[in-house]
Amino acid sequence: MESTESTRQKKVSRLIQKEIADFFLRKGGEYAPGKLISVTKVRVSPDLSFARIYISIFPSTNQTEILQAVQDHGHKIRFELGHKVRSQLRIVPEIAFYIDDSLDYIDKIDKLLKS
Question: CB 3.0 to 4.6 Å from 100: which of 8, 54, 58, 93, for a disulfide?
């Protein structure tokens, strides 16, 4: 299936994914002590004004509370992102976080196949 994302969208997605992943590496403990937050994918709107950021939390307990904490600090995370990418992007996109539960889904399928 051919992706409809432009080259620019893909570049911006990769840039945001790298910077947000770096942010969670440095400050993820503030939102989820003892857990690992990783950025699995970033989808950017065609006009580059909005980014959907999919995160995976390991271990996957309390995902909803952690997602809520991350969303509550979205403005702070966007501000930090702005500092990192201001030389590459004219406008820092609005960001929204979502849980990427594909790993849980894979794990569930794996368990079903083994039983």
Answer: 54
Coil/strand/helix, residue 47? coil
Tell me the C-alpha distance between 34 and 58, whole Å.
Answer: 9
pLDDT in tens, 26-81: 988 887 888 888 999 999 999 999 999 999 888 878 888 889 999 999 999 999 99
**Do the domain assignments include residue 33?**
yes
DSSP one-letter code for 97? E
The answer to whether residue 71 is domain-embedded is yes
Residue 87 belongs to domain with CATH number: 3.30.300.20
Q: Count the domains in the chain.
A: 1
68: left (phi over 0), alpha (psi -120 to 50) or beta: alpha
Q: Are 48 and 85 in contact (CB under 8 A)?
A: no
